[in-house]
Design goal:
Length: 353
Amino acid sequence: MSKAADIPKEQWAQVTEKDGVITYKKIPVPTPGHDEVLVNIKYSGVCHTDLHALDNDWPLPRKTPVIGGHEGAGVVVQKGELVTNVDIGDKVGVKWLMSTCFHCTFCQQALESLCPKAQLSGYTKDGTFQQYCVANAAHLARFPPQTDLSAVAPIMCAGLTVYKGLKEADTRPGQYVAIVGAGGGLGTIGIQYAHAMGLNVIAIDGGKEKGEACKKLGASMYIDFTESKDLVADVKKATHDGLGPQGVVLLAPQEQPFQQATGYVRSHGTVVCIGMPAGAKVSMPVFDTVVRMIKVKGSYVGNREDTAEALDFFLRGKVHAPYKVIGLSQLQSVFDEMRANRVIGRYVMDMSK
Protein backbone atom coordinates (compact mmCIF):
# COMPACT_ATOMS: atom_id res chain seq x y z
CA MET A 1 0.00 0.00 0.00
CA SER A 2 1.38 3.39 -1.02
CA LYS A 3 0.57 6.63 0.76
CA ALA A 4 1.56 10.24 1.28
CA ALA A 5 3.87 11.01 4.20
CA ASP A 6 1.71 13.43 6.18
CA ILE A 7 -1.59 11.61 6.90
CA PRO A 8 -2.78 12.49 10.42
CA LYS A 9 -4.17 10.01 12.96
CA GLU A 10 -7.33 12.06 13.61
CA GLN A 11 -9.65 14.28 11.58
CA TRP A 12 -12.71 16.51 11.95
CA ALA A 13 -16.07 15.12 10.81
CA GLN A 14 -19.81 15.72 11.06
CA VAL A 15 -21.30 12.50 12.45
CA THR A 16 -24.97 11.48 12.62
CA GLU A 17 -25.20 9.43 15.80
CA LYS A 18 -29.00 9.51 16.01
CA ASP A 19 -31.72 10.60 13.59
CA GLY A 20 -31.88 14.37 13.01
CA VAL A 21 -28.76 15.21 15.03
CA ILE A 22 -25.22 15.85 13.75
CA THR A 23 -22.15 16.17 15.94
CA TYR A 24 -18.98 17.98 14.91
CA LYS A 25 -16.18 15.93 16.42
CA LYS A 26 -12.74 14.42 15.95
CA ILE A 27 -12.60 10.80 14.79
CA PRO A 28 -9.82 8.44 13.60
CA VAL A 29 -8.69 8.64 9.96
CA PRO A 30 -9.78 5.40 8.21
CA THR A 31 -7.53 3.04 6.23
CA PRO A 32 -8.44 2.00 2.66
CA GLY A 33 -8.84 -1.63 1.60
CA HIS A 34 -7.15 -3.46 -1.28
CA ASP A 35 -9.31 -1.83 -4.01
CA GLU A 36 -9.90 1.47 -2.22
CA VAL A 37 -8.23 4.85 -1.82
CA LEU A 38 -8.09 7.41 0.97
CA VAL A 39 -9.10 10.83 -0.31
CA ASN A 40 -8.19 14.03 1.51
CA ILE A 41 -11.51 15.80 0.95
CA LYS A 42 -10.90 19.48 0.27
CA TYR A 43 -14.51 20.46 -0.47
CA SER A 44 -17.90 18.79 -0.18
CA GLY A 45 -21.24 19.98 -1.48
CA VAL A 46 -24.39 19.63 0.62
CA CYS A 47 -27.34 17.94 -1.09
CA HIS A 48 -31.01 17.64 -0.09
CA THR A 49 -30.39 13.89 0.03
CA ASP A 50 -28.07 14.57 2.96
CA LEU A 51 -31.04 16.00 4.85
CA HIS A 52 -33.06 12.85 4.13
CA ALA A 53 -30.10 10.78 5.33
CA LEU A 54 -29.88 12.88 8.50
CA ASP A 55 -33.59 12.45 9.23
CA ASN A 56 -33.57 8.78 8.11
CA ASP A 57 -36.96 9.32 6.46
CA TRP A 58 -36.50 7.14 3.35
CA PRO A 59 -37.61 3.48 3.14
CA LEU A 60 -33.97 2.50 2.66
CA PRO A 61 -31.86 1.16 5.55
CA ARG A 62 -29.16 3.62 6.64
CA LYS A 63 -26.15 2.80 8.78
CA THR A 64 -25.91 4.40 12.21
CA PRO A 65 -23.74 6.16 13.13
CA VAL A 66 -23.02 7.55 9.69
CA ILE A 67 -20.96 10.37 8.20
CA GLY A 68 -23.05 11.97 5.47
CA GLY A 69 -22.00 13.61 2.23
CA HIS A 70 -21.55 12.45 -1.37
CA GLU A 71 -20.28 15.46 -3.32
CA GLY A 72 -16.64 15.27 -2.37
CA ALA A 73 -13.66 16.67 -4.24
CA GLY A 74 -10.12 16.09 -3.02
CA VAL A 75 -6.73 14.48 -3.46
CA VAL A 76 -5.70 10.82 -3.25
CA VAL A 77 -3.27 10.36 -0.33
CA GLN A 78 -3.27 6.58 0.08
CA LYS A 79 -4.28 3.61 -2.08
CA GLY A 80 -4.63 -0.14 -1.80
CA GLU A 81 -2.29 -2.50 -3.61
CA LEU A 82 -4.90 -3.45 -6.25
CA VAL A 83 -5.58 0.15 -7.32
CA THR A 84 -4.07 1.03 -10.69
CA ASN A 85 -6.40 3.68 -12.13
CA VAL A 86 -5.31 6.57 -9.86
CA ASP A 87 -2.06 7.68 -8.22
CA ILE A 88 -1.11 9.50 -5.03
CA GLY A 89 -1.67 13.22 -5.61
CA ASP A 90 -4.44 12.82 -8.23
CA LYS A 91 -7.52 15.06 -7.93
CA VAL A 92 -10.69 12.97 -7.71
CA GLY A 93 -14.38 13.13 -6.88
CA VAL A 94 -16.43 10.94 -4.53
CA LYS A 95 -20.05 10.38 -5.62
CA TRP A 96 -23.27 8.96 -4.15
CA LEU A 97 -22.54 5.59 -5.78
CA MET A 98 -19.60 4.42 -3.69
CA SER A 99 -19.24 0.89 -5.09
CA THR A 100 -21.04 -1.85 -7.03
CA CYS A 101 -20.47 -5.57 -7.67
CA PHE A 102 -19.63 -5.19 -11.42
CA HIS A 103 -20.97 -8.66 -12.27
CA CYS A 104 -24.78 -8.55 -11.83
CA THR A 105 -27.11 -8.12 -14.82
CA PHE A 106 -27.48 -4.39 -14.11
CA CYS A 107 -23.75 -3.69 -13.83
CA GLN A 108 -23.16 -5.57 -17.07
CA GLN A 109 -25.62 -3.23 -18.83
CA ALA A 110 -24.01 -0.06 -17.38
CA LEU A 111 -26.99 0.30 -15.05
CA GLU A 112 -24.74 0.13 -12.01
CA SER A 113 -26.97 2.43 -9.95
CA LEU A 114 -29.46 -0.47 -9.88
CA CYS A 115 -26.90 -2.96 -8.56
CA PRO A 116 -28.46 -4.88 -5.62
CA LYS A 117 -25.12 -4.70 -3.79
CA ALA A 118 -24.48 -0.99 -4.40
CA GLN A 119 -22.98 0.93 -1.48
CA LEU A 120 -23.91 4.59 -1.07
CA SER A 121 -21.67 7.41 0.17
CA GLY A 122 -23.03 9.08 3.26
CA TYR A 123 -25.80 6.52 3.66
CA THR A 124 -24.66 2.89 3.75
CA LYS A 125 -20.99 3.92 3.86
CA ASP A 126 -19.37 6.92 5.55
CA GLY A 127 -19.26 9.83 3.13
CA THR A 128 -17.58 13.15 2.50
CA PHE A 129 -18.49 15.22 5.57
CA GLN A 130 -15.04 14.33 6.92
CA GLN A 131 -11.55 15.45 6.02
CA TYR A 132 -10.38 11.97 4.94
CA CYS A 133 -12.76 9.58 3.20
CA VAL A 134 -12.29 5.99 2.00
CA ALA A 135 -13.72 5.35 -1.48
CA ASN A 136 -13.80 2.55 -4.03
CA ALA A 137 -11.22 3.43 -6.70
CA ALA A 138 -13.26 2.18 -9.68
CA HIS A 139 -16.13 4.61 -9.01
CA LEU A 140 -14.06 7.74 -8.50
CA ALA A 141 -14.44 10.68 -10.86
CA ARG A 142 -11.04 11.81 -12.11
CA PHE A 143 -10.19 15.49 -12.59
CA PRO A 144 -7.42 17.23 -14.53
CA PRO A 145 -4.71 18.83 -12.32
CA GLN A 146 -5.97 22.38 -12.92
CA THR A 147 -9.54 21.64 -11.73
CA ASP A 148 -11.03 24.00 -9.13
CA LEU A 149 -12.14 21.52 -6.47
CA SER A 150 -14.66 23.85 -4.81
CA ALA A 151 -16.42 24.47 -8.13
CA VAL A 152 -16.46 20.85 -9.31
CA ALA A 153 -17.79 19.33 -6.06
CA PRO A 154 -21.50 19.97 -6.86
CA ILE A 155 -21.11 18.24 -10.23
CA MET A 156 -20.55 14.96 -8.36
CA CYS A 157 -24.23 14.72 -7.45
CA ALA A 158 -26.29 17.75 -8.45
CA GLY A 159 -24.70 17.99 -11.88
CA LEU A 160 -24.57 14.27 -12.61
CA THR A 161 -28.11 13.58 -11.38
CA VAL A 162 -29.82 16.35 -13.32
CA TYR A 163 -27.75 15.70 -16.45
CA LYS A 164 -28.85 12.05 -16.37
CA GLY A 165 -32.47 13.16 -15.87
CA LEU A 166 -32.31 15.43 -18.91
CA LYS A 167 -31.02 12.52 -20.98
CA GLU A 168 -33.92 10.39 -19.72
CA ALA A 169 -36.40 13.09 -20.81
CA ASP A 170 -35.70 12.20 -24.47
CA THR A 171 -35.83 15.81 -25.63
CA ARG A 172 -34.11 17.26 -28.70
CA PRO A 173 -32.52 20.67 -29.37
CA GLY A 174 -35.18 23.33 -29.91
CA GLN A 175 -37.76 21.58 -27.74
CA TYR A 176 -39.03 22.64 -24.31
CA VAL A 177 -38.21 21.21 -20.91
CA ALA A 178 -39.83 22.31 -17.65
CA ILE A 179 -37.56 22.07 -14.61
CA VAL A 180 -39.51 22.03 -11.35
CA GLY A 181 -37.45 23.10 -8.36
CA ALA A 182 -35.29 25.12 -10.75
CA GLY A 183 -33.89 27.47 -8.11
CA GLY A 184 -32.29 24.77 -5.97
CA GLY A 185 -28.96 23.02 -6.17
CA LEU A 186 -29.91 20.59 -8.94
CA GLY A 187 -32.16 23.04 -10.74
CA THR A 188 -29.64 25.85 -11.13
CA ILE A 189 -27.19 23.41 -12.75
CA GLY A 190 -29.96 21.70 -14.71
CA ILE A 191 -30.93 24.97 -16.40
CA GLN A 192 -27.38 25.30 -17.69
CA TYR A 193 -27.12 21.71 -18.91
CA ALA A 194 -30.47 22.04 -20.69
CA HIS A 195 -29.44 25.36 -22.25
CA ALA A 196 -26.14 23.84 -23.40
CA MET A 197 -28.08 20.92 -24.91
CA GLY A 198 -30.12 23.36 -27.01
CA LEU A 199 -33.36 23.18 -25.02
CA ASN A 200 -35.78 25.97 -24.13
CA VAL A 201 -36.05 25.96 -20.35
CA ILE A 202 -39.23 26.72 -18.40
CA ALA A 203 -38.08 27.18 -14.80
CA ILE A 204 -40.63 26.58 -12.02
CA ASP A 205 -40.01 27.50 -8.39
CA GLY A 206 -41.15 29.94 -5.71
CA GLY A 207 -40.04 33.52 -5.08
CA LYS A 208 -38.67 36.46 -7.05
CA GLU A 209 -35.07 35.88 -5.96
CA LYS A 210 -35.09 32.37 -7.41
CA GLY A 211 -36.72 33.71 -10.57
CA GLU A 212 -33.94 36.21 -11.11
CA ALA A 213 -31.31 33.51 -10.56
CA CYS A 214 -32.99 31.13 -13.02
CA LYS A 215 -33.20 33.73 -15.79
CA LYS A 216 -29.55 34.72 -15.35
CA LEU A 217 -28.59 31.07 -15.82
CA GLY A 218 -30.45 30.73 -19.12
CA ALA A 219 -34.12 29.98 -18.42
CA SER A 220 -36.35 31.44 -21.14
CA MET A 221 -39.34 31.61 -18.79
CA TYR A 222 -39.84 31.56 -15.02
CA ILE A 223 -43.12 30.58 -13.35
CA ASP A 224 -43.56 31.34 -9.66
CA PHE A 225 -45.82 28.64 -8.26
CA THR A 226 -46.59 30.80 -5.22
CA GLU A 227 -48.10 33.48 -7.51
CA SER A 228 -49.67 31.29 -10.21
CA LYS A 229 -53.44 30.79 -10.04
CA ASP A 230 -53.37 27.98 -12.63
CA LEU A 231 -49.95 26.37 -12.91
CA VAL A 232 -50.95 23.88 -15.61
CA ALA A 233 -52.28 26.64 -17.87
CA ASP A 234 -49.28 28.89 -17.20
CA VAL A 235 -46.77 26.19 -18.13
CA LYS A 236 -48.59 25.43 -21.36
CA LYS A 237 -48.72 29.13 -22.25
CA ALA A 238 -44.94 29.32 -21.87
CA THR A 239 -44.53 27.19 -25.03
CA HIS A 240 -44.91 28.83 -28.45
CA ASP A 241 -47.91 26.70 -29.47
CA GLY A 242 -49.53 26.33 -26.05
CA LEU A 243 -49.20 22.54 -26.05
CA GLY A 244 -46.74 22.28 -23.17
CA PRO A 245 -43.14 21.13 -22.84
CA GLN A 246 -41.88 17.88 -24.37
CA GLY A 247 -40.06 17.05 -21.16
CA VAL A 248 -40.56 17.70 -17.45
CA VAL A 249 -37.82 17.16 -14.86
CA LEU A 250 -39.16 17.03 -11.30
CA LEU A 251 -36.59 18.03 -8.68
CA ALA A 252 -38.94 19.42 -6.03
CA PRO A 253 -38.86 18.18 -2.42
CA GLN A 254 -42.68 18.43 -2.16
CA GLU A 255 -45.33 16.00 -3.44
CA GLN A 256 -47.72 18.38 -5.27
CA PRO A 257 -45.54 18.96 -8.37
CA PHE A 258 -45.51 15.20 -8.98
CA GLN A 259 -49.32 15.26 -9.22
CA GLN A 260 -49.42 18.28 -11.55
CA ALA A 261 -46.83 17.40 -14.20
CA THR A 262 -48.92 15.08 -16.39
CA GLY A 263 -51.45 17.89 -16.71
CA TYR A 264 -49.08 20.19 -18.58
CA VAL A 265 -46.56 17.91 -20.29
CA ARG A 266 -47.07 17.78 -24.05
CA SER A 267 -48.79 14.72 -25.50
CA HIS A 268 -46.19 12.01 -26.16
CA GLY A 269 -43.96 13.85 -23.71
CA THR A 270 -41.91 12.51 -20.82
CA VAL A 271 -42.11 13.26 -17.09
CA VAL A 272 -38.90 12.41 -15.22
CA CYS A 273 -39.06 12.02 -11.43
CA ILE A 274 -35.80 12.80 -9.61
CA GLY A 275 -36.72 14.54 -6.35
CA MET A 276 -37.81 12.15 -3.60
CA PRO A 277 -40.12 13.82 -1.07
CA ALA A 278 -40.51 11.56 1.95
CA GLY A 279 -43.64 9.41 1.68
CA ALA A 280 -44.76 11.01 -1.60
CA LYS A 281 -46.69 9.18 -4.34
CA VAL A 282 -47.13 9.80 -8.06
CA SER A 283 -50.67 9.63 -9.44
CA MET A 284 -52.07 10.31 -12.89
CA PRO A 285 -55.35 9.83 -14.73
CA VAL A 286 -55.11 6.54 -16.64
CA PHE A 287 -57.30 7.60 -19.58
CA ASP A 288 -55.37 10.82 -20.17
CA THR A 289 -52.01 9.06 -19.80
CA VAL A 290 -52.95 6.39 -22.36
CA VAL A 291 -54.70 8.57 -24.94
CA ARG A 292 -52.01 11.27 -24.83
CA MET A 293 -49.21 8.62 -24.76
CA ILE A 294 -47.48 10.22 -21.78
CA LYS A 295 -44.36 8.57 -20.34
CA VAL A 296 -43.56 8.81 -16.63
CA LYS A 297 -40.21 7.46 -15.44
CA GLY A 298 -37.78 7.68 -12.58
CA SER A 299 -34.16 8.71 -12.99
CA TYR A 300 -31.54 7.88 -10.40
CA VAL A 301 -27.86 8.86 -10.44
CA GLY A 302 -25.81 8.37 -13.60
CA ASN A 303 -23.21 5.72 -14.34
CA ARG A 304 -19.48 6.25 -14.85
CA GLU A 305 -19.91 7.29 -18.49
CA ASP A 306 -22.64 9.77 -17.52
CA THR A 307 -20.20 11.15 -14.94
CA ALA A 308 -17.53 11.69 -17.60
CA GLU A 309 -20.06 13.43 -19.87
CA ALA A 310 -21.42 15.68 -17.10
CA LEU A 311 -17.87 16.56 -16.08
CA ASP A 312 -16.96 17.39 -19.69
CA PHE A 313 -19.65 20.10 -19.82
CA PHE A 314 -18.14 21.58 -16.65
CA LEU A 315 -14.55 21.44 -17.88
CA ARG A 316 -15.53 23.18 -21.14
CA GLY A 317 -17.15 26.00 -19.17
CA LYS A 318 -20.72 25.21 -20.24
CA VAL A 319 -22.02 24.78 -16.68
CA HIS A 320 -21.08 26.07 -13.27
CA ALA A 321 -22.82 25.52 -9.97
CA PRO A 322 -23.81 28.75 -8.20
CA TYR A 323 -22.41 28.04 -4.74
CA LYS A 324 -21.41 29.58 -1.43
CA VAL A 325 -18.42 28.30 0.53
CA ILE A 326 -18.79 27.70 4.27
CA GLY A 327 -16.84 25.70 6.82
CA LEU A 328 -17.45 22.05 7.73
CA SER A 329 -18.35 23.23 11.24
CA GLN A 330 -21.33 25.19 9.81
CA LEU A 331 -23.21 22.23 8.32
CA GLN A 332 -26.15 22.51 10.74
CA SER A 333 -26.96 26.00 9.44
CA VAL A 334 -27.26 24.60 5.90
CA PHE A 335 -29.76 21.98 7.02
CA ASP A 336 -31.73 24.72 8.80
CA GLU A 337 -31.93 26.71 5.56
CA MET A 338 -32.97 23.60 3.63
CA ARG A 339 -35.83 22.97 6.02
CA ALA A 340 -36.98 26.57 5.49
CA ASN A 341 -36.66 26.24 1.66
CA ARG A 342 -34.27 29.22 1.57
CA VAL A 343 -31.35 27.64 -0.31
CA ILE A 344 -30.52 29.07 -3.74
CA GLY A 345 -27.88 27.09 -5.59
CA ARG A 346 -25.48 25.01 -3.53
CA TYR A 347 -23.52 25.21 -0.31
CA VAL A 348 -19.99 23.83 -0.57
CA MET A 349 -18.02 23.17 2.61
CA ASP A 350 -14.34 23.97 2.96
CA MET A 351 -13.14 20.99 4.96
CA SER A 352 -10.31 22.92 6.60
CA LYS A 353 -12.72 25.21 8.49
